[in-house]
Amino acid sequence: MGEDNNKSKVNWIKERESVANTARSVHHSGLVSGKSGNVSLRINDNGKTNLMAITPSRQSLSCLTAEQIPVVDFDMNPVEGQCIPSSESLMHVAIYKSRIDVGAVIHTHSLFSTVASITGDKIPAIVDEMVVTIGGPIYVADYGFPGSQDLADNICTSLGNRNAALLRNHGAVGVGTDLEQALEISVFTERLTKIFVYSKMLGKINGIPKESVAAEEAIFEMMNQREIYSEG
Ligand SMILES: [Zn+2]
């Protein structure tokens, strides 16, 4: 039993290191400033998937090490590490519970995503790769106090089966099967919201034709099912 625990800890160091590395990438991509933003990874603990490694509270993502990444269960009980988990942990847990296909979550206060979140209006399908990559329009979660269960519930509603959503008056969330995809989605979401904000400044927004959106949503569904199947 003790040996098994030791083996798990070795594995988790690798996963905690991946979270720290991704957190640094999030910072270097310009998606966060100061001590904002958080990154987590679902840990598959011998078939149980009720653990996550998550960036610590009130620390810059720019220079984290594996040892600074705590592991907690989905009831927020500490499992590994000394640091206090992110204050947005409830949001990460809620997403993992509602989406079995999600293996990693990134939350940022990136500039254009925050700007676009203020109105509360969804970002319609404005470029083709948006639908294939994110799954459709980007919806804005109703306002919730930072760190609250309300915020966690609202983000799950706005995320649906898609890979990104905005949090009203707050920022963005990107998810993926792994950290690499969650980072890619987060960078792409910021680029999309920038395109949207600039387009609005020019005037009328022309979305993609409905038939194209439907075809691209079908491709997204197909790709997602394949990923869930291959995980199993
Ligand atoms: Zn936040």
Task: Describe the protein in words.
- By secondary structure, the chain is α+β, with helices and mostly antiparallel strands.
- It has a single domain (about 1-230), classed as L-fuculose-1-phosphate Aldolase (3-Layer(aba) Sandwich), CATH 3.40.225.10.
- About 45% of the residues lie in helices and about 15% in strands.
- It has helices at about 1-30, 90-100, 110-115, 130-135, 150-160, 180-200, 210-230; strands spanning about 40-45, 50-55, 70-75, 80, 105-110, 140, 165, 170-175.
- Strands 4-3-2-1-5-8-7-6 form an 8-stranded mixed beta sheet.
- α1 packs parallel to α6 and α4 (about 130-135) packs parallel to α7.
- The two termini are about 25 Å apart.
- Mean pLDDT is about 90; it is low at about 1-5.
- Bound molecules: zinc ion (ZN).
- The site of zinc ion (ZN) has 6 residues, from loops.
Question: What pattern of helices and strands is seen along the backbone?
Answer: HEEEEHEHHEHEEHH
Structural class: alpha+beta
The number of domains is 1
Rg of Cα set: 17 Å
Q: Which CATH architecture is right?
A: 3-Layer(aba) Sandwich
CATH T-level topology: L-fuculose-1-phosphate Aldolase
Helical stretch tally? 7
Supply the CATH superfamily name. Class II aldolase/adducin N-terminal domain
